Recover the amino acids of this structure.
């Protein structure tokens, strides 16, 4: 079946620290992979995506690389800001489908 | 900017009342979804639709029902609200094609007292 396993949180970092949130997946074929972000009191919004192996998605200083050999899509940012405090969701859509399968979410808090 | 709207944003209602959560999108998307988000943040798909007059139940069993009479509109109804229905409800829509992202509304936070 299709599933996403995401690093448990919460994660608390100081401003300018390096961030990694691990995400691994199980899927047949070649799924599309996504990171969504949910700011307090809001819905989810797309942060970045990748649709094939070795693609790197990037946005707002965040990056994630589609690694088929390790079935991973880890989210990284070199220097976090207080404004990055949010919940981050890893997700996939299987080949030929549009249903999103989400990880459990990781809450990030960045302190000044 | 995502053009998908949910109303109301917040709702407090008594047990046994009938409620409808509204969701509309102006992007012409065929696919629409309802998710329930528990306090632990996890998202559970409760309903989806692939087009007009098409509705399916999601992975999480829900006592709610949905309808899709128009492409842009995907309301969710609870015939008799209970405290166990207290949750955040998120509506989303997406186009077709590989790698197409989903757009989410801001959510409705429902409290049943």
């Amino acid at each position: 079946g299709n599933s996403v396993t995401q690093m448990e949180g919460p994660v608390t970092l100081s401003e300018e620290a390096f961030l990694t949130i691990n995400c691994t997946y199980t899927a047949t074929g070649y799924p599309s992979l996504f990171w969504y972000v949910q700011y307090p009191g809001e819905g989810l919004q797309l942060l970045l995506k990748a649709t094939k192996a070795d693609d790197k998605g990037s946005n707002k200083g965040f990056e994630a690389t589609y690694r088929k050999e390790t079935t991973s899509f880890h989210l990284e940012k070199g220097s976090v800001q207080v404004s990055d405090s949010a919940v981050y969701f890893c997700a996939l859509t299987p080949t030929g489908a549009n249903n999103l399968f989400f990880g459990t979410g990781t809450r990030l808090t960045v302190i000044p | 900017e995502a053009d998908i709207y949910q109303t109301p944003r917040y709702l407090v209602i008594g047990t046994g009342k009938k409620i409808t959560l509204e969701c509309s999108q102006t992007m012409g998307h065929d696919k629409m979804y309802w998710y329930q988000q528990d306090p632990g943040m996890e998202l559970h798909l409760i309903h989806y639709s692939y087009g007009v007059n098409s509705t399916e139940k999601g992975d999480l069993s829900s006592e709610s029902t949905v309808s899709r009479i128009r492409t842009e509109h995907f309301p969710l109804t609870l015939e008799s609200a209970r405290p166990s229905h207290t949750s955040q409800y998120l509506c989303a829509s997406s186009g077709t094609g590989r790698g197409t992202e989903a757009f989410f509304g801001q959510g409705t936070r429902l409290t049943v007292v």
